[in-house]
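Consider this one:
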Amino acid sequence: MSRTENVQLSDLLMKLYGNSDEAIFFFDRQGKVLAMNSSAEEILDKDVYDQMMVGSTGAICKACKGYTSSEEPLTCLSCYMANPDEDISSFQVYFDTKGRGVIPYSGSIQTIDAKTGIRVFMLRDLTHQFKTQEELNQKLMMKRVIKAQEDERKRLSRELHDSVAQEMLSSLVDLRVLKYMNIEEDVLKKVQQTEGSLMRLLDDIRHLSVELRPATLDDLGLEAAFRTHFKWVEKNYGLKIHFHPELESKRYEGEIETVVYRICQESVFNALKYAEVDELVVRLYEADGLLHLLVMDEGKGFELKNMDPKGTGLGIYGMKERAELVDGRFQIRSEIGKGTVIQLEVPVVKGGVDD
C-alpha cells in the first residue's frame, strides 16, 4: 500500500470520508445503506435516516425527488439505483433535505467491490453553481434586452431624422413659397401660423430623435454626445452644466459608451427634477484603467436609505443594473441640504479603442 509521510492511504481515505463536504453513502446490491458519512446524515430528514438505519431498502427514494435525464428535467424512470451493476460517473439529482428544501446535487454512483456488489453514492451540492449560473444568465439576458432596446432606439431615431423630419422640412419649404405668392391677407396669416406650428413640431421631432439615440454618440463618441445633450438641457430648462471632459476624444466599446451616456442622462434628469438647482458639474475622465463619470450638484440632497422618496426608484435601480452589465461600480453620495454626487467607474482597455 502506498504511503505519504508514513501515513497509510487507508487513514487518508477515512479522513476524506469523515471530513468531506460531499454526502457519501455505501449501498449493498439490494439498495440497503451500509454506511454514510456525517455530511450525508446532515441532509436527511429524521424519518428517512431512521429507515436507512433499520436497513429499509429503497429508503433513499424517500429523499430523492428525481434526476435529470436527456428527456426530462426530473424523472424516476430508469433510476440510478435500479441497476446494481451500472456505474454512472456524473448526473444531476434533486434531494429533499433537512431544513433546506429541495436541493440540486451532482451525483455519482460506482461499484467499489464487484464481488459483494457494494457501491458508493456521492452527492455534491450544486446550489452555489446554480446561483452563479442564474446570475450569469440574468446578466446575459439583461445585456440582450438593453442591446435590443438601444438598437430599436437607433432605428427609430434614424427613421425620425431621415424620413419624418425631412418630409416636414419639405412641407415647410412649400409653405414658405406660398408666402411670396399673391394671396389674401387672411390666407397669408394662416400660412404663417401653420409654418410656426410645423417649426415647433419639427423641433420636437428632432429632440425626440436625439433622446431616443443621439447620432453623435455613435459617430463621434461620449464627449460630443454630452455637449449636444447639455446644450439642449440648458436651452430648454435653463440648467447650467459645467462639463469637464478629459478624454481627448477617445472612443470606447459601444456598450460602455451607451452605459455611461444613459447613466449621465438619468443623473442630469434626476438633478433637474429633484435637486432644485440652477447648475451642476459633470466630469468625464480616465485614470488607472477606469473610465470615471462624476455628476455633482449642491441641491437638496436626500437620505441614502430612502433612495428615491419622490419617485419609483426605478431610475437609480436602472443605473445600477446598467453599470453591472459592464462590470462597473456605481455609487451615490448624498446628504440632506448638501447635494448629491453620482459616481460611475467602468473598467476599460487602456487608451480606449481605435475609431
Notes: Residues 35 and 334 are 60 Å apart (CA to CA). The chain has a mean pLDDT of 84. The chain has three domains: 3-125, 126-213, 217-355. DSSP finds ten helices and 13 strands in the chain.
